[in-house]
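Lesson 9: reading folded outputs for more than one chain in a single document. The general rule is that every protein is listed as its sequence immediately followed by its structure tokens, and records are never interleaved. Here is the first one.
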Amino acid sequence: MSNEGTTERDETGKQLQRDFQNYVKSRNTPKSKENDFWTPRDVFGSLNERFGPFTLDAAASKENALLPEYFDIEANSLEQEWTGKVWCNPPYNKQGKTSIKDWVHKAYDSVNSGLAQVVLLLIPIYTICNYYWHEKVFPYASHLVFFRGRLDFGGPHRREGGASRHGSVGIVFQNAWKGTGMQVLTMSTKGEWLTKEIWDRELLELKLKNGIFAQGEYLDENRFLVKAGSTANLKPRKSWRSSSIKARNSLIEEGTLMSKDGTLVFTRDVTFSSPSKAAECVRATPSNGRKLWRAVA
């Protein structure tokens, strides 16, 4: 049997791969791999006014830092503690073993741990194809800021023609957000606010290892609604010393919480004054509702 046909196909495949690599290289400019760019000052000013004042520039250099306190490449920002209100326009191109995903995870973890009050990331708008959007951004960001047009990043590596080759988006993680979902904002490339709307994340859930399962949703003014059919722990923890105990006992007495198979079951929707009060009722112990109620996977 002749191998001539197989060899010919292999050579054709290799040539197609070479052609594709040459095509990709031809799309890169000499400055495509540079990372030292300056955020447009008007854009930073508007974001700083709304979400700041920022206290730390987490990815900067001496030449482009927007704040007195900053981490440069030598400081290795991803290994540092981010505290206060953090501004971060990280390197768009991969550096060593780090990528945009690492910066998103660092921002989320810094806020979720309580070290930082706010982190605003300005990153390329690669969305659906990247898992970090589904794991961290869509479930937990308080705001997304989309820009009508591509931003004109300045500095020594500024691209001819001005605007970036990629669109950008601002992602905000913060503990203080009291909205009912994620707020989506749009801004011009000159820093002018254009529109805003609320993207409702809809259903949230709270799962415990003992099988307790509750579902709910945010309402206005930070109130939280627990859905009928949700379950709750039957016996309170001994450490629970709260006015919430009295409210929970009232729900049991009126039949809104009914005992069934060693648990309590919500017989109707119940509105609580906060997500923490709702979580306390479900867990029968002090609870941080902001961390416990999670988006439905």
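And here is the second record, again sequence then tokens.
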Amino acid sequence: MSSEATRLVIAYDGSDVAQAATREAAGLFPGQPAIVATVWEPGLAVLPMTSSYDVGGGIAMPPDPRTVEALDRSQREHAADVAREGAELASSLGLAAEPHSLADHLDVAETLIDLARERNAAAIVVGSHGIAGLRSHLLGSVARKLIEHSDLPVVVVRGKRS
């Protein structure tokens, strides 16, 4: 089996849980090639500015496209920095890691699955904050969606329960 077929995709957002998942991946798959992926969502930073009502009774105006572009550029740059940080961590733990930031146009889990398929990954590694119950349904869970939709093995590393 070539190293391309053993490549891991590690979901990385810079959180303590993502760091723990990276450490666990390095322990489970020592020396393996890994893509440390950070997903960013275009337009997300603009949502609070685009309310559907206006307190003064007027019509809410759409945000200036230049503002949207600048916010997206800022998010893209931040995601690239976070992915580099994760790849540095993974490399320091012995993985052959490369950073990868990508825009999410549908769903974070589906974006990660598509990346894993494109790069011929053998598994996806993700941290889980352990959100349960109603909060999980309202907020969604990338780990849960990966397990439900991925045709690849998914390694879920649980964070500490508070």
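What the second record shows: The domain at 3-43+80-158 is CATH 3.40.50.620 (Rossmann fold).
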